[in-house]
């Protein structure tokens, strides 16, 4: 595998990047019970690193990133996926005042998803922020759109789950799928170019340590033999008792009657490190090459990084083959489709801020060194003792054996064959 610094990696023209944020979004998102103040830390660090102000010499001296304020998603937009009952409850006064335990349980607003101050604002603003980023991609305003407050991959159609109250990933995929058919030009050296159109394809890649249960389930269809516009691929940890329980979270198996080649699952064992991620990159890249998406939604949950309280993987942020930073750089440089970068899990808030600020610099094409000093700003004390961007590896042993990784490789070789057949059977379906 090539390193990200190899000169053989084709250079792309500078990407146009949109970053979605506003004061009201930060205020609402900072009240999320599972991640209090995290949103504030993330955007403050991006600002402290001067990424909002940086000017790109390749874009006629324009700024690298255009900052766009999110709109609120309307109830009608939320109804594209969520049920009316859930929305009426979660957006209305009942969610704050209700003592009706059966309703509280029905809508999942208990345990790890308690109602919280301005929850209705949060739901509408986070969904609105992700949809604002989607609009920027669909309207051709940018090639990469960033919404670190999004990425709520456990929220279900009719209930909150796993710290997630709104299914912004699903809403984004549904909106991108509706884009106008894309023209595709194919030719060989001996033939004239052929222009075909096809419905846009959307690939969802989930890097969070937890399985993307709600997103995968939303598009799962084992009974179809046709092609699909949407492919989901979750890379995560799964083991008995590890959230979320799902029949879809095991390693995808083409021999299983319930197999759907458009709903893919690649679980990694405890301690997954840069070494393992370097090893599986060609597998993930192979799926992208086979599916050839027009849009790629990347859920950049960072709870698999070393130092996260979930303490399951040992992934590093930057520097080195297989790191999260190197993965994102490859996806941005080598994958053709437009990218939507979303947040997700990440329970060491300072590390989540480091990670998303660092990934922002990569998206801008202006990757900061990981030993960059974090300069004076209100949250500075939280970055001690290193006061740098780096999230280095811990001491956990990587339990992903060569034998297991070979099995993953073998499975995905077959999966690509099945996928290829299904896609070719549907060529020209637009
Ligand atoms: Zn997670």
Task: Outline the structure in words.
- The protein has 430 residues and is an alpha/beta fold.
- The protein has a single domain, classed as Histone deacetylase domain (Arginase, Chain A, 3-Layer(aba) Sandwich).
- 33% of the residues lie in helices and 11% in strands.
- It contains 13 helices and 10 strands.
- The strands form 2 sheets. Strands 2-1-3-10-9-6-7-8 form an 8-stranded parallel beta sheet, sandwiched between helices.
- Helix 7 packs parallel to helix 8.
- The radius of gyration is 21 Å and the shape is globular.
- 49% of the residues are buried.
- The N terminus is likely disordered.
- Zinc ion binds next to loops.
- The site of zinc ion (ZN) has 7 residues, from loops.
Task: Pick out its properties.
Arginase, Chain A, eight-stranded parallel beta sheet, two-stranded antiparallel ribbon, 10 strands, 11% strand, disordered N terminus, 430 residues, alpha/beta, binds zinc ion
